[in-house]
Each structure stands twice: as structure tokens, then as C-alpha cells.
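User: Predict the complex with calcium ion.
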Amino acid sequence: MKNPITQLIIAVFFLSILNHQVISQELPIPGQLIITEFMSNPSAVSDSKGEWFEVFNTSDKTLLLNGMIISDNGSNSHTINSDQDILIGPGVYLIFARSEETSENGGISSDYIYSNFTLGNSEDEIVISLPDETVIDQITYTADWPLYSGASCELSPAFDFSLENNDWQHWHPAVDTYGQGDLGTPGKENSISSFIYMLDKLEEFEVFPNPTTGPLFVRIRTMEAEEVKISLINVLGQRIPLFEQRVAGSLFIPLTLDQIDIGIYWLEVCTGETRSWQKIIHQ
Ligand SMILES: [Ca+2]
Ligand SMILES: [Ca+2]
Ligand SMILES: [Ca+2]
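Assistant: Here is the predicted structure with calcium ion placed in the model:
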């Protein structure tokens, strides 16, 4: 048996090889790090503790974030600064938050805590850039975006990362609940995907705002002329018809749930033989 010193030297040798071979860390280039979700207006906790945003590594590399800058177009600016490497693995989500205390941040598990950076409730920017000011990703949200108190704003999980994410039409209010009751999917795939079962004849199926207090807008696009029926299905499986018309191409349909009881429903769109659903919260 080898003595402990020899064993230690061998261990260190193999660890250093592992380190060099397995972990190659580098700063991202544009397109590799994408803002996928932000909570600008928490309801369960104060904004000063409960704001956060999520980024996703679209690349096949582990990215090193130390030294990068989080800023807006005003005076907010924070340089990522830590004694430890702030790393994000390939296909991994990372949460930047204002507080690491789960009792005060709404119940999220954070990866990095920033300062001097706040998220306006009706408009603001999130700009992530390299120390040389190369912008890696940015969004500028305005009143056009689906911003609601107590719900994060999520990039559609069906989003094609080669496109520009700074467009409100790709964003939705979150549906899933986290921590102390606000809606969002911090650190996880965005919630809309769990509720969209899109079938081949519907090219586009968006419903907003969700949750809603009454008004509901449905945007669909069909590949060919189809008889489209839209219904709500309640938790008992009862179907409430809302709309029926022959449609071809894009259609924007305003609906109202004013006469419908408060609760959780599935919004069903029938096109010809196929059906698609999204979960709707009427509050
Ligand atoms: Ca805020
Ligand atoms: Ca700001
Ligand atoms: Ca998420």
C-alpha cells in the first residue's frame, strides 16, 4: 500500500488533469446566455427582496460570468463580483436575485445576489454585457409586455434562440406557482410549455393575459382554412363554448370571462380534427 503522501500527490495529479480536461470556462459570446424570465413586481414579498431574473445557457460550454455587468439604460449597474467562479453549465438556468434569504425573497433558490439593480414594474431594461461592454443579451420591457403583479414574465419555451428575444410577443405571464405563492419558474423551464399541447394544424396559439380578471385574448394561426372552436373546460370537465368560426391564417380573438366563475380552466382550441389546450387562471 502506498503511503498517504504518495496517494495525495496522485490524487492532486489526477484532479488537475480532470480540471483541465473537463472544465473549460469562458465568458459567453452573444447568443450563448439568454434572459428567459424576470420577476419585476413580486406580490408575496417586497420588490426590494423579491425581484429576480433568470438566464439560460444555450451553448454546450460552461460559461464563466465573473466580471460581467448587469445594467439598464439608466443608472443601474452591477458588476458580477465573487471570490468564487460564477459558472453556468450548458443547458442550465441561473437565478440572479436581490436576496438569498428564502424567507424574504419569495421562496426562490438564488445563484447570485446583485445590488444597485432594480426592475421597474411597468418598464425597464436588463442588459448583460462583458467587461468590454459587448452586449450579450438585453431586453427592454414596456407597458406592452405582459407584466402583472405577482407573476413573472417568461420567454416562451418554444422560443427559437436564434431569434431576437427582445419582443413582447415572445413573452407570457407565468402560470406555475413558486415559494410563497407568486407565479414563476425560477431556475426551471418556463411554465407555459407544460400547458401547451400544440398539434400540427395550429402554428401559433397564445392566450393572454393569464391569469386574467376577465378580458382574454387568443391569438392563433392555422395552416389552412379550418373550423375553429374555442371552449373553456372547468375542473369537472364541463365544456363552456366561447367562439366558433371558420378561420384561415392569423386571428386575434378578444374574449371575456366576465360571466364565468373564478377558477382554473383549460382553454381548448379545436381546429378540424385536432385540439390544443392551455391552462387559464381566472381570478
Ligand atoms: Ca419592481
Ligand atoms: Ca432598472
Ligand atoms: Ca424559468
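The pocket of calcium ion (ligand 3) is lined by residues 36-37, 54, 93, 154, 185, 188, 190 (CB under 6 Å).
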